[in-house]
Amino acid sequence: MKLRTGTTSVQQTFRVKYLYKHSGFTMQNLKHDIAVLVLEGSVQLSPKVAKVCLPDQAADLNSKCYITGLTFNDFTYCHGVKHGFGLK
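Predicted structure:
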């Protein structure tokens, strides 16, 4: 499995060393549709590639979180924008 970061002019491609998916994830719905990827190599940060912001320990973890992103098929075709998914 590979992961690509950035836009076409500054993209980086990495092999995924480990994938840790949420234990509650199923293909039947989008609940718990989240994972942590450990990459082979170091990502070079830029204005187009940044670290994820994680909540501090005092955060209300029972509230919904909304994310956005794009879905790609083998780095060549964009299926469209995914938005408004509620995570809890």
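Summary: The two ends are 27 Å apart (CA to CA).
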